[in-house]
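Reopening this ticket.

The earlier resolution said the output was attached, but the attachment link was broken on my side. Pasting everything inline this time so it's all in one place.
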Amino acid sequence: IDIASGSTVDWAYDDLKIPFANTIELPPKSASPGFVLPPSEAPGVCHETYVGMKAFLAAIKQELQSSMSG
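Inline output:
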């Protein structure tokens, strides 16, 4: 994911000093059909989102544990 510009993630980092923020982007990346996801692709997108969030939360947990121990 590219660095966000003017998004809520920027606001969370810069203004609120929240150390962890995430943006979920939906496919497709092209203009057609935009963010209208065909129903047949929903299970795959759900799985990818789940795996990504699981990794994001694991990284946060690891960061917090290491900052508490050292």
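Reporter confirms the inline version is readable. The two ends are 30 Å apart (CA to CA). The first helix runs from residue 8 to 14.
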